Amino acid sequence: MWGRKNIILLASGILIVVCVLITFLSNAGGKKTTLTFQDGSTYTGTTNEGKPVKGTLKFKNGDVYTGGFKDGHFEGRGTFKSHNGWTFTGIFHKGVANGAGKLQDKDHVIQAGNYVKGEYKDK
């Protein structure tokens, strides 16, 4: 039924699958690190080849962005909190609001809806 050769082949196949999964899972999240930039801003989160992927960027002036990054820009879902008290939560593309989002101050929502290239679009 199960010969020695088949058992060895099965065990080898399982070992290969486990090795591939371990390699993939250990690299899937990227490397968590803290980066400090020349202007005094700091980034804490995952990186890929030294570039921010997902984390928090704290600017020297007190502004904070938490979310995704791509090619040095805010990308995907994120939240930008201004040191002036307003917050934007939504979708970013190439560093600007682009998609569903909500702009609010400490007390109430100012604008909620669709943003295109950083501008609120009522309809």
From TrEMBL:
<protein>
    <submittedName>
        <fullName>MORN repeat-containing protein</fullName>
    </submittedName>
</protein>
<dbReference type="InterPro" id="IPR003409">
    <property type="entry name" value="MORN"/>
</dbReference>
<keyword id="KW-0677">Repeat</keyword>
<dbReference type="Pfam" id="PF02493">
    <property type="entry name" value="MORN"/>
</dbReference>
